[in-house]
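Convert to structure. Protein one:
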Amino acid sequence: MDAEERRREILDTARRAGVVDVGKLAADLGVSKETVRRDLRVLEQHGLVRRTHGGAYPVESAGFETTLAFRTTMHVPEKSRIATAAADLLGDAETVFIDEGFTPQLIAEALPRDRPLTVITASLTTATGLATRDNTTVLLLGGRVRGGTMATVDHWATHMLSGFVIDLAFIGANGISRQYGLTTPDPAVSEVKAQVVRVSRRKVFSGVHTKFGAVSFCRFADVSDFETIVTDTGLPLTEAHRYSLLGPQIVRV
């Protein structure tokens, strides 16, 4: 196996498992740990993985995106804490957008039941979960349904959004960086998110620490567009401070 084949195998493993360990890769591939580290450095330079202490995880790109089912298995305790903290930011909002994805789905579940709310969402899963609540009116955006995320996209969704003024939007992303802002692999998803940013008075980003510094294909917002970023304590304080200098309040839970 030459270097290119080995790196392809490492990348495939990372995308299947969600994370790879240097020691296990070295043993499985029959090479030294330093060779694996060198391969991971190359893959990171190409924007395909992000290295961690002792391993790496894949970056979602135009050619790779995790499914909603997979996301429900990764960093679940962190996502649950983030969702609770994000829902606490509701304030006096009466109309709320809930993005596609597992963390936004958890935010929807954490919204209060004792007050009237109108929730707009592209997520079929979130719409189904909220539809039976007595005090909640659910507006599901129309459009093409993406099987991997069970969410709607394309011009039907963006056109419907264009007629709204939304009090508060809970928005996710596949990557967030100080240089490139918020990104996602699919142009159709990017258009929906960008439209949400345009029509919402307040914007909150929620995502686990692994999304920070990651850059995907389609950029849809600047960090400065958001009043608050909610993440977990895996994001170092020093890095959180750098993001706060761009405008948003950073909440680490």
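Protein two, convert as well:
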Amino acid sequence: MRILFVGNSFTSRNNLPGLIKGLAGARGIEVEHKLISAGGASLRQHFNAGKALDEIAGGGFDTVVLQEQSTLPIKSPDRFRESARDFAEAITAAGASTAFYLTWARRNAPETQQALTQAYGGAAVELGATLVPVGMVWERFLSQYDEPALHDTDNSHPALAGSYLAACVFLIALLNEDPVGIDVPVKGLDPDTAAFLRQSAWDICTDMAA
């Protein structure tokens, strides 16, 4: 499966695409990925810059994963939706499918998760896209557990555990595979913690689906 990721540090931090590739490989799915990322970039900035559109138009990708600037869907959901529509049109024209990487609220503003979920969820429904509900899974996890920390020390970006949990959600929502039982070592992540995050992702996603 060839995946193009368009986003910023929420995607590039801890090499999220690489974590997804490792999990998918353990399930017999070869993932080739490319990342177009710029610090703090919005989807509109990526769209206007043209590089992402050139990659999409070049074809060959099965899925394009879109990640908006972390607070823009909260502050300007209409702007996010407009950018999502424009990207989805280009993605469909290239014969690929669209997926939205629903991100999480900052640690000191958990109440903003609802706005993120509504913005990304609404775009996915409108455009017939896949929703990868990472932020919703983070929200459930944080309501039950204090450890491991999902946020980095800046209270915004993901710690390695947060990125790994996100990768597990991608495996479930985008690749339709169960992460439980996968034993692929991740540098910097204790094996028991990794196993706990895989099980948590599966349990939370299963519960949300039901």
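Residues 104 and 138 are 7 Å apart (CA to CA). Strands lie at 2-7, 32-37, 63-66, 97-101, 130-132.
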